[in-house]
């Protein structure tokens, strides 16, 4: 049994004939040109009856690809439009003070939730620590992070509950300035 | 199975497994796919050790030359990856879905009976339930997914509703997008 070497698309990684179904169909088309399967190419050199059928199907595919391309272009434009204001917003917020909540896995089952930036809103960390320790009934401590100021460490994974607690206890903090750190990326806690 | 699984970093243990276990794995794969016997040397080169990587949800990946070639769940049957299937399409029985279903199959949807019985679809071989199949697509040469039949092909034809083939591994899932795992 001889191995068949399948041509994979450089852009999406799919076999070439599946490019039209990938998320980056337009980019694939640009990089590779329209896909003509080896069978279709071979049958066109055969007798006439088959050529008509194959050509019709291939043109159908091309039409569809064209449509896909058009749709994808519009989508991309939409993305760029929406992306621009988001970036601006973020920049503005970084000037202001934000709160970041991060869950660090200590070992397999145990987590530490660390929350930093509370002092930027004029909250006494020692008080906040007491409140959290009470609320979550668990160990809680104020930790000095060199260069970053002080943050509160809570034993356990409380990132969702923390947002609720902040919402309750400290209404002066806008929910939009609370961020989770997931995989080193900032994710807004509430939308 | 691999829709949400992120392979990178999730590998909890990857071991150079014992040679006796290697032999076991190799034998069980070969008995499951008798057609592989002729090309045993190509898939399992004698000098290269088989590596097993354990992932979330009790999924085991079988690596040769740090290329993922087979996987299984718990002690279940071994499935080839799509890249192996593309190279050797005859190792699995084929079923073909119609054109309209491709889009959904590539998003990881299970294959409905209607997609297997409509004019564009084909089921040439009679299969019992719970057999591993290559899901081909109308007008395409290569497989789009690997699945397990939920009912026999006869039932698929007669009942003709609900899920016919469970989608296990499809083009574009995280297993397909990470062809190699380097240790």
UniProtKB/TrEMBL annotation, chain A:
SUPFAM superfamilies: eIF1-like. It comes from the Eukaryota. GO terms for biological process: formation of translation preinitiation complex; translation reinitiation. Residues 99-170 form the SUI1 domain. Pfam families: DENR_N, SUI1. GO terms for molecular function: mRNA binding; translation initiation factor activity. Belongs to the DENR family. This is SUI1 domain-containing protein. The lineage of its organism: Eukaryota, Amoebozoa, Evosea, Eumycetozoa, Dictyostelia.
Automatic annotation (TrEMBL), chain B:
Keywords: Cytoplasm. The keyword Calcium does not apply. It comes from Polysphondylium violaceum. This is PUA domain-containing protein. Its main location: cytoplasm. GO terms for biological process: formation of translation preinitiation complex. GO terms for molecular function: RNA binding. CDD domains: MCT1_N (cd11609), PUA_MCTS-1-like (cd21155). It is found in: Cytoplasm. Residues 93-172 form the PUA domain. GO terms for cellular component: cytoplasm. InterPro entries: MCT-1/Tma20, Pre-PUA, PUA, PUA-like_sf, Uncharacterised_CHP00451.
